[in-house]
Amino acid sequence: QVQLVESGGGVVQPGGSLRLSCAASRSIFTGAIMAWYRRAPGKQRELVARITRAGYTDYKNSVEGRFTISRDNAQNTVDLQMTNLQPEDTAMYYCNKYLATTRDYWGQGTQVTVSS
């Protein structure tokens, strides 16, 4: 069964923190480079961070140093720790394999709103 379940979003003030979690089915997770994406209102979905099975990470420039992606290969989960959140981080956040397209399965996402 193909599954991606994102959780952990919420409303925070600028400077706040959130930790997003994603539970993936084995068919998606095993051996894959996993990633977090986001889609802000009126904008296209963009890659935020990615992580290889071995733990190599890469980040969008604007979140470098504030966000940390991690994965648990035994649990098929991938997390995104977000600190010093800013209004421009407001978006729906999704996890998926790296380079997933619109033809791939996507979960419902988790909403992050940064507002004072």
Order of strands, main sheet, comes to: 2-10-9-4-5-6
User: In whole angstroms, how far apart are the ends?
Assistant: 40 Å
Please count the helical segments: 1
| Helix proportion range | under 10%
| Helix vs. strand class | mainly beta
Taken in chain order, the helices and strands follow as EEEHEEEEEEE
What's the pLDDT, averaged over the residues?
A: 96
The biggest beta sheet is recorded as: 6 strands, mixed
Short synopsis of the structure:
By secondary structure, the protein is mainly beta. 3% of the residues lie in helices and 46% in strands. The chain has 1 helix and 10 strands.
Please render the helix and strand layout as text.
Layout: E1 4-7, E2 10-12, E3 18-24, H1 26-29, E4 34-39, E5 46-51, E6 57-59, E7 67-72, E8 77-82, E9 91-97, E10 110-114
Question: Would you give an account of this structure?
Answer:
With 116 residues, the protein is mainly β. It has one helix and ten strands; from the N terminus they run βββαβββββββ. It has a six-stranded mixed β-sheet, with no helix packed on it. Strands 1-3-8-7 form a four-stranded antiparallel β-sheet. A hairpin with a 4-residue loop joins β7 and β8. The longest helix is centred in the N-terminal third of the chain and has 4 residues, at 26-29.
